[in-house]
Design brief:
The structure holds 2 protein chains of 2 kinds. Chain A is mainly beta. Chain A is 7% helix and 35% strand. Chain A has a domain of 50 residues. Chain A is extended and about 40 Å long. The mean pLDDT of chain A is 87. Chain A has a 4-stranded antiparallel sheet with strand order 2-3-4-5, with no helix packed on it. By secondary structure, chain B is α/β, with parallel strands linked by helices. Chain B has one domain: 2-enoyl-CoA Hydratase, Chain A, domain 1, CATH 3.90.226.10. Helices cover 36% and strands 19% of the residues of chain B. In chain B, strands 2-1-3-4-5-10 form a 6-stranded parallel sheet. A two-stranded antiparallel ribbon of chain B has the order 6-9. Chain B has a two-stranded antiparallel sheet with strand order 7-8. The longest helix of chain B has 21 residues. Chain B starts with 58 loop residues before the first helix and ends with a helix. About 14% of the residues of chain B have low confidence. The interface between A and B is large, with 29 and 45 residues.
């Protein structure tokens, strides 16, 4: 990965070593597979959409960072 | 059959009286409860679910706006279907590595399919790209720029605060580009931070990377390659670096950006382009 930015690399990559990978798992919400991490009881934070339907990517409630409710 | 009757019928009006001729003998506990007067769909002011006039305001909508307020400090506008989609590219354009959380990032894996949806959706007639970016990954930035350039629908970009480094190809990828008076664009060479160039091949690799970016910018704007490279390697503009900072009008004068303007001009231009595009696409109107 080549970063092309006027910001100093120290500023951008600060904390990269301490960063831990979130415990991601896959859920199926209304037919859309989402990669999520836990965000409290019954709630999940969307990390990524895994859908082949392009219209799913226009749904604001499924954007990365959105909190979704899901019962296992 | 003996059943103890309450002494005072007034105190227990809910108990069914088997002797009462008005009592419905067919009543069973499993039957759905009678409609409460407050939920009567026939009542004015209480539109039922089948009513096409019913405003579709659900509670989730309110929660979403609260979340937007909390996370982004903005309020969700009431849902009016717009034929323009606003694509916001902010912070660092994140590449194949997830950046630490202090970076605000634009995630390409979400933007790329979104652009496919924008191309395909019959409701969307134009895309407004709003830029305030400090650059980021070369591959991801070029991928987004190529997607925007490849859209068959009208596209207008607007550089607000800054469109630096890899933000430059994204800004010029739209059919028409705007820059605000105060916005800046930094043009500088690609570097491999912290890596010593030990062999000539590394230098050549970097040159190739640089060429990809320069070629895209030259192809999608009015600037010449020589002029762009001259700005890229100019010394004395940046404090401890080589390169050029273009502010507002300067970006237009060198041919990188089409016009100085803000959101008003950008939306007007996009609407004009949509009208033009609709006229030239007869089959588009048939499809709708």
């Amino acid at each position: 990965m080549i970063l092309y930015t006027p910001l100093p690399i120290e500023l951008v990559s600060d904390g990269l070593q301490e960063m831990k990978t979130p415990a991601a798992h896959l859920i199926d919400l209304e037919g859309v597979t989402l990669m999520v991490e836990d965000a409290g009881p019954g709630e999940y934070k969307v990390l990524r959409l895994l859908s082949t339907n392009p219209y799913d990517y226009l749904r604001p409630n499924l954007h990365p960072g959105a909190i979704v409710k899901y019962q296992r | 059959m003996f059943r103890e009757r309450p002494q005072n019928q007034e105190e227990f009006p809910f108990l069914p009286d088997p002797d009462d001729p008005g009592h419905d003998p067919g009543f069973t506990p499993g039957q759905p409860p009678e409609k409460e007067p407050g939920n009567d769909p026939g009542r004015p002011g209480f539109p039922g679910p089948g009513d096409p006039e019913a405003p579709k305001r659900v509670q989730g909508q309110r929660k979403e706006s609260m979340q937007a307020l909390k996370e982004l400090g903005t309020n969700v506008l009431p849902e009016i279907k717009s034929n323009i989609h606003c694509l916001t590219i902010v912070g660092q354009i994140e590449g194949h590595l997830v950046l630490p959380p202090q970076n605000k990032t634009t995630k390409y894996e979400h933007l790329l399919p979104q652009l496919v949806a924008l191309e395909q959706s019959p409701e969307i007639e134009g895309v407004l790209v709003v830029l305030n970016t400090v650059g980021g990954d070369v591959e991801a930035g070029l991928a987004i720029a190529e997607m925007i350039a490849g859209l068959s629908k009208p596209t207008v970009s607007i550089v607000l605060g800054g469109g630096h480094s890899i933000g430059v190809p994204v800004a010029v990828s739209a059919r028409y580009s705007f820059i605000t008076h105060t916005a800046s664009m930094t043009i500088h060479p690609i570097r491999l931070n912290g890596l010593i160039i030990g062999v000539p091949q590394t230098w050549e690799y970097l040159e190739k990377m640089q060429d990809r970016v320069v070629r895209f910018i030259v192809e999608h704007s009015r600037i010449s390659e020589a002029a762009f490279r001259e700005m890229m390697f100019r010394s004395g503009e940046l404090a401890r670096d080589i390169g050029t900072v273009l502010i507002g009008r300067e970006a237009v004068e060198c041919g990188l950006i089409d016009e100085v303007g803000s959101v008003g001009q950008a939306v007007k231009k996009l609407k004009d382009m949509i009208a033009e595009w609709k006229k030239n696409n007869e089959d588009y109107n048939v499809k709708i």
